[in-house]
Amino acid sequence: MRILLLAAATALLPQAACPATPGDADRVALTRLAADLDAVWDAGDPAAVSALYAVDGSLRMDGRPVVQGRDAVQRYFVETMGRRPAGARHVTHVEHIDMLTPDLALVDTRVSIERDDAQGRRDVLAEFHNQTLSSRQAEGWRFRAVRAQRVANPMPASQPQGAAR
């Protein structure tokens, strides 16, 4: 009997380690977290940006040193938001979500920093691919670890998706 139980447990182990797709409520909540980040970034509110991070959350932008902890994340955004171009917007597209555990998600996003050009079209100033661990906290989903890598040749926002760069 022990051998049978051991064999069954071994057979089920790989399934337990595989990421799952999120349920509707988690997908909506994680997409909302991304939209909330866009809104508070656009408003220029570093305190509200950092409030979307777990207390021990971290951020690493484009290979720079890791910014660790909510207070340090806030200081980072105080500094960087002061240098952003006038009219810049933060636009996040959630591309994929893997539930690693019921309270931990790996979220792949494409983030662009955009503004309107002289003709009223959106111009992409910078584009990043983000891999983010988000964790369910008492106050809802929060960013646990954000790793953002700049995309070398961003696609203009006014260019249709799927078009050649």
TrEMBL record:
Classification via Gene3D superfamilies: 3.10.450.50
Signal peptide: 1-19
Domain SnoaL-like: 26-146
InterPro entries associated with the record: NTF2-like_dom_sf, SnoaL-like, Steroid_delta5-4_isomerase
Protein name: SgcJ/EcaC family oxidoreductase
Keywords for the protein's UniProt record, in alphabetical order: Signal
Annotated source species: Agrilutibacter solisilvae
